[in-house]
Design a protein that fits this description.
Distance between the termini: 34 Å
CATH superfamily of one domain: HUPs
Largest sheet: 6 strands, parallel
Order of helices and strands: HEHEHEHHEHHEHEHH
Bound molecules: adenosine-5'-triphosphate, nicotinate mononucleotide
Number of helices: 10
Strand order of the largest sheet: 3-2-1-4-5-6
Number of strands: 6
Helix content: 25-40%
Radius of gyration: 18 Å
Strand content: 5-15%
């Protein structure tokens, strides 16, 4: 289910000797293969979803993933289970529009960490489509691309946390977004999903279900802060992501 490696990944920082064990992004293609192979739209593993005409459900986990952590992974898995999703695709935003007020780690690193974090789950995959598109990342463009690619028997289910869903009316072309997917908003410690919000969504063009998931009070900001303070992030993300952060010297300075 792995996608081809972005050309720019080859410029990722070289591994350094030391106590970190490097887990580089995997290069799937061999020299000469790339030119003859069509670039996937979503990912190699998921491009043919629904091609047999059978109903299928694709979960879409969008995020900045700077870095990906257990909160993202557990909520994607619990939505997959609750909604009988055939797969969940993690789509790291190339240039997240609501995070313009801070430096975001290069997309290739965030993509590589998503791949490392998801590789042990056969129902999880990662797409570089938002990174490849370039420019500001808008979900409306991603959902239009997905809708144009997949046949009608593939249902799109966009997964958001309680914090992200609260801002959905401010998303670019939000009315169009509403018509392109069903949304599942998951609970997140410190954020509210209540009846008032439910009523607001019911009066809107959005279809939003609420799902209670295991409360994990973990955030990418907290992981970044912990690394910058020299503290451990063990168990807050997959060990291969922790190794990548260490080996590539990410988050050492607080931003
Ligand atoms: N602990 C969590 N529980 C449930 N949902 C989460 C959790 N962490 C993130 N999410 C959801 O995952 C999606 C992507 O989140 P994002 O990559 O911005 O992570 P973050 O931890 O919120 O990052 P940051 O702390 O940098 O703002 C969003 O929809 C967000 O609401
Ligand atoms: O399309 C938009 O205008 C838009 C604005 C803010 C966030 N989003 C999407 O919402 C998802 C969660 O975003 P974030 O900033 O919490 O990582 C991610 O897929 C973003 O691309 C989308």
């Amino acid at each position: 289910m792995r996608e081809e490696t972005l050309a720019s990944e080859s410029s990722a920082p070289a591994s350094r000797p030391g106590r970190c064990e490097v887990q580089p992004a995997q290069a799937v293609s061999r020299p000469g293969e790339v030119a003859s192979r069509r670039s996937p739209v979503v990912s190699e593993g998921l491009d043919n979803l629904g091609a047999d005409g059978a109903p299928a459900r694709l979960g879409i986990m969008g995020g900045t993933f700077d870095p990906i952590h257990i909160g993202h992974l557990a909520c994607a898995e619990q939505v997959r289970e609750a909604y009988g999703l055939d797969a969940v695709v993690f789509i790291p935003a190339g240039s997240p529009v609501f995070k313009r007020d801070r430096d975001v780690t290069p997309a290739d690193d965030r993509l590589a960490m998503c791949r490392l974090a998801t590789e042990s789950n056969p129902a999880f995959d990662v797409s570089a489509m938002e990174i490849k598109r370039g420019g500001d990342t808008y979900t409306v463009d991603t959902l239009r691309e997905l809708r144009a690619h997949y046949p009608d028997n593939v249902e799109l289910v966009f997964i958001t946390g309680a914090d992200a869903v609260a801002k959905i009316f401010r998303w670019h072309e939000s009315e169009a977004v509403a018509g392109l997917a069903r949304f599942v908003a998951v609970t997140r410690p410190g954020y509210t999903l209540n009846d008032e919000m439910r009523a607001t969504f019911e009066k809107s063009p959005f279809t939003v279900d609420f799902l209670e998931v295991t409360g994990l009070s973990v955030s990418s900001s907290d992981l970044r802060r912990r690394v910058s303070e020299g503290k451990s992030i063990r168990y807050l993300t997959m060990s291969r992501v922790r190794d990548y952060v260490c080996e590539h010297g990410l988050y050492r300075k607080e931003r």
